[in-house]
Every structure is written in structure tokens, then in C-alpha cells.
Amino acid sequence: MIREDLASRWYNAIFSRHSVRAYDGSSVPSGMQDEIGQLLDGFSPMCKGARAVLLEGGSSEILAGFMGVFGKISGADLVLALIGDASYPNHEVAVGFLGEGIILHATSLGLGTCWVSGTYSRKAVEARIELGESEKVMAVSPIGFAEKPGNEMEENSMKAPGGLHKRKPLESLIRGLPMKDWPPGFRNILEAARLAPSAVNRQPWRFTVKSDRILVSAARFELLPMAARKLDCGIAMLHLEAASGASGIHGEWSLLDTPPGVAEYIIRHRLRRRDS
């Protein structure tokens, strides 16, 4: 379970996090790096099968890939490398969960980030990291101070520059209980999960709501491979648990091994009631 202080901090960061591609090149203070460093080996049992490494320098080489209409990433001081251990059956979920916790923490410190899972130099990362036999680099993120805050290109600006978090409506992502029958707090939790970033903003997850749990599934009929969908589900699961903890609703995850089911968040305790 995520510590309550971190859950509240990360929940608040959900609403300001966005993808930053242009950085001002200034150094991230050592105190901030130390805070991030404390999270690299995990902060929850859900991180099992994943770890992260913070690389100083070399961002121009690692992030030199073509970024399409969004443009290239430039000027970042640090690169976060996210590593999955394939000997764990749910390592993709773990990488998403771990990575988004670190990214939201960086956001809470006033730093910019950007999930990158395809257009980066894996070779350049692997040259600087010692990998285990079953480990692989699965994604990276630049970390640094945004150049000209408010003007950098954001993840959703390709066709609709109407806000930081253009997402599908919640109604299109849920199954199970009608909204009018949801327990208090469930709407806040699921709205936070809805705002999770995903590959090309496809939101490849679905939520089945029951009175005492929320089932997270990988969306069917998606062009994204299952590994990418499971990583994105891990990101949404981090948002869901952070919002849950911030709302005083405590639960635990049960991982599923029958696709498209990924995991169930089972509610164990409600500290206080909030309007949904």
C-alpha cells in the first residue's frame, strides 16, 4: 500500500502533471534527486518486478529519436530509465506503477517529465546500466525544469489544444454498477485513474465497478500490444490507489492472470466518507 502522505501528494500532482518536451537545461538540485532516488527501488509490493535508474547527462543521446508532430525532447538534465524483470509475470504492470509514482513525485517537486516508451535509444541507455539476465529497459522519462512554463507542447495538443488532460469520458471506460449506486468516493478515484497518461493517449484500460472493488482490464480490440496495455494499466492503477489513499479509502491489489483482466482493487477499509 502507498504511504498516505505520498498518496495525498501524488493525488494532487495528477492534476498538474503533463508531458514536457522542452527543458531549460538547468541542473536538478541534489536534494530533489535524493528524494526521487528513494523511490527507485519501489514503494509498494506492486513495484515487484520493476526498478528504475536515474541517469545524469546524456539525455540528448538517449532522447534523440524522432517524436513526430510533438517534436523532439531537448534540454533535460536527467533521464529516468524504467526496467522490468521478465521473470515476473506482471512486470509490465509493475513498471507502469513504479514509473508513474516517480513521475508524480517529480511533478510535486516542480519538475517536468514525459513518458517515452518507443522513440528513444535503448542502446544508449543499456550502455550505462548493468541489466540482469531477464531484465530489459521498457521506458524512459526526461526529468528537469520546463522551458518557458505554460508554452511547451503538451501530450494532448496534436489535434485538440483545449486543456492538459483531454481524455475519453469516464462513462465510456466503466462497466458494472451504475454511477448512481457507486459507494462514496468511487467517482473521485475513477476520475483520477481516467487522467492517467498512456501510449498515444489511447487509454487502453477499462474499469468494472462493484460495491467493494474495482476491476482493471486491458481494453480489447486495441492496436497496442498487450505488454504496452499492461504497462499503461499499471500507470492508471497508480492513479487509482493514490486517489483512494487521499480519499481515506484503503484497499489492496489482487493481480489477475486471465486476460484481459489485469488486477482488482479490493476495498478493505474506509476511514471517512466523502461525496462522490
**Beta-strand percent range:** 15-25%
The count of DSSP E runs of length 2 or more, i.e. the number of strands, is 9
Structural class assignment: alpha+beta
The CATH topology of the largest domain, please?
Answer: NADH Oxidase
What general outline do the C-alpha atoms trace? globular
Give the strand order of the largest sheet, numbering strands 1, 2, ... along the chain: 5-6-7-9-8
**C-alpha end-to-end distance:** 22 Å
Q: Give the mean pLDDT.
A: 90
What's the CATH first level of the largest domain?
A: Alpha Beta
CATH H-tier superfamily of the largest domain: NADH Oxidase
Bin the helical content: 25-40%
Biggest sheet architecture: 5 strands, mixed
Q: Which second-level CATH architecture of the largest domain applies?
A: 3-Layer(aba) Sandwich
Succession of helices and strands = HHEHEHEHEEHEEHEE
Low-confidence stretches: 151-163
Report the radius of gyration as a whole number of Å.
18 Å
**How many domains comprise the coordinates?**
2
